[in-house]
Known about the structure:
Radius of gyration: 18 Å
Largest sheet: none
Number of strands: 0
Distance between the termini: 49 Å
Amino acid sequence: MAQARGSLWSAVATLLATSTTLVCCAIPAMLVAIGAGAALSSLVSALPQLVWLSEHKAAIFAVAGIAIAVSGAVQWRSRRAPCPVDPALRGACLQARKTSRQVFVASVVIYLVGGWFAFVQQLFA
């Protein structure tokens, strides 16, 4: 149960780390793509830290990539860890494992979307 809980926390931390890739790159690119440049301007005025995130996107993606790799290793290591024999605890253990996998997959998808807008999309413009 402790390993399943650890992998869940690892996946949640990865989700938080990769969500910065959306904030720095994907959301601003999407706003510009749909013609909402004024909304992006207002957003940057309200949150000037977004400019700093965009300027340091390579470092942000590196940290998020490392977080995904570590979380993936934790997920892989705990995939066959034993769950308790008690049916209630076993159900909770299996549910935590499933939730952890789902959060990890969501983190990878967010990372890929952010990477697309940060590095690949600009090649086609």
